[in-house]
Design a protein that fits this description.
This protein is mainly alpha-helical. It has 12 helices and 2 strands. The protein has a single domain, classed as Orthogonal Bundle (MetI-like fold), CATH 1.10.3720. The chain is globular, with a radius of gyration of 24 Å. About 25% of the residues are buried.
């Protein structure tokens, strides 16, 4: 006889749902409300419909051109970050010790950059990369390279990319290390018996076992890099010019600098939808690839 299905466990989830509704859904609905209205101060709002969204997506308008340019900067920054941090994190994870006291020391050292607050990271690199008092800027200039992230857009991009790589490569490395630690020793013993090369071990044993954690790492790093604000704002302020003005900086300038709540709310909704859409594409593509490879492995 089948036991009756008990739904009373949902009662334990209700407080969590209430907290989520209060902290996420209600603010979201407030932003949606602002996005379809305009205000002229004194807390007086006027219906504007989809006007702000049309302006945001119109490349010929001033706001639309700024938003689209910031979007491409964000996309380029995320692509560069993923292209550097994922292979570098895999390489660091492969080089980390597997046993002994060195494991604890290595894990602590790898976790240290992740514990530094974002605004402190920006302040550290703002000083570190200065040509007059910063060690990095002074050393690069002594090599005969004209390095000044305040006036040179290329130097500004190199600085914020290096800063993000220093700050977040540890996350990718630790996730990959967890995937490597889950591989049974029997796999390596079979590879040694078969005379597999180091590359063959990585390609057919280690990389497949890291695939799932790599999906998580890519998704986390894409979301973080696409929403980056504090570090580049502290270091460059979005400059020189608008070369490092990402969507988040443009949004804050619009909301707090100009106090244009309607446009800022519409932009935040579009920003959120872009992140959700790209993450969905990433996740779908990578999980489908993982499923196809799993079927191929089962068939062989």
């Amino acid at each position: 006889m089948d036991r009756p299905y008990d739904n009373r466990a949902w009662l334990l989830v209700l407080p969590v749902l209430a907290i989520v509704a209060f902290s996420a859904v209600i603010p979201l609905m407030t932003v949606v409300n602002y996005s379809v209205q305009d205000t002229f101060g004194n807390n007086q709002f006027f219906w504007n419909g989809t006007g702000w969204f049309r302006e945001l997506l119109d490349p010929s308008s001033d706001l639309g051109s700024r938003v689209i340019a910031s979007f491409w900067r964000n996309l380029a920054f995320s692509a560069i970050i993923l292209a550097i941090e994922v292979p570098l994190g895999i390489a660091v994870a492969l080089a980390m010790p597997r046993a002994g006291w060195k494991v604890a020391v290595t894990l602590v050292l790898m976790a240290m950059p992740l514990l530094v607050p974002w605004n402190v990271v920006g302040t550290i690199w703002q000083v570190f990369a200065r040509g007059d008092i910063g060690l990095l800027g002074y050393a690069v200039n002594r090599l005969g390279i004209d390095y000044n992230y305040v006036s040179d857009p290329v130097a500004a991009w190199v600085t914020i990319v290096a800063m993000d790589v220093w700050h977040w490569t540890s996350l990718v490395a630790l996730l990959c290390y967890a995937g490597l630690k889950s591989i049974p020793d029997a796999y390596y013993q079979a590879a040694r018996i078969d005379g597999a090369s180091r590359w063959a071990v990585f390609r057919f044993i280690q990389l497949p076992k890291m695939r799932r954690v790599l999906i998580i790492a890519v998704l986390l790093r894409f979301m973080d890099s696409f929403m980056i604000y504090t570090e580049p704002f502290v270091v460059t302020g979005g400059g020189p010019g608008n070369s490092t003005t990402f969507l988040s900086i443009e949004l804050v300038k619009l909301a707090l600098g100009q106090f244009d709540l309607g446009k800022a709310a519409a932009m935040s909704i579009v920003y959120n939808l872009i992140i959700l859409a790209v993450c969905w594409v990433f996740y779908t593509a990578m999980t489908n690839l993982d499923a196809e490879r799993s079927k191929e492995g089962a068939a062989s």
